[in-house]
Write a structure and sequence with these properties.
The protein is mainly beta and about 110 residues long. About 5% of the residues lie in helices and about 50% in strands. It has 1 helix and 7 strands; from the N terminus they run αβββββββ. It has a 4-stranded antiparallel sheet with strand order 4-3-6-7, with no helix packed on it. A 3-stranded antiparallel sheet has the order 1-2-5, with no helix packed on it. A hairpin with a 2-residue loop joins strand 6 and strand 7. The protein is globular. The N and C termini lie far apart (about 65 Å).
């Protein structure tokens, strides 16, 4: 039995954008006291934005739009808010936006 399969370019593009284990963000150290390092891989050049959100849902810090090269990327956060003040101890959510893809996770700040 022979089956012909038509390959759709949109399907190929969708498959190429499926996250794999190389695209998962690592946040070290977690919990953290003074600084935090986000490490993630990009399949292609991308525009990234990291947002830190408090447990109450307010944006604490937006780590701008920055260009990421294909491969491993790192970005450090100094644990300060947009106003330059150290954020208090607690649980925060990070949101990493890579082009149209969003990855979220929890981080813990300790004193």
């Amino acid at each position: 039995n022979h089956v012909d399969v038509a390959i759709n370019e949109d399907l190929i593009a969708a498959v190429n954008n499926i996250p794999d284990e190389n695209n998962i963000v690592k946040v070290l150290p977690n919990p953290f006291t003074n600084f935090l390092c986000f490490e993630f891989n990009c399949k292609n050049e991308s525009i990234a934005e990291i947002t830190i959100i408090s447990n109450q849902g307010s944006i604490v810090m937006t780590l701008g739009n920055f260009n990421c090269s294909a491969g491993k990327n790192t970005y450090q956060w100094n644990g300060k808010s947009d106003t330059g003040v150290d954020v208090p101890s607690g649980v925060y959510t990070y949101r990493l936006k890579l082009n149209d893809r969003i990855i979220t996770g929890r981080i813990i700040k300790t004193q």
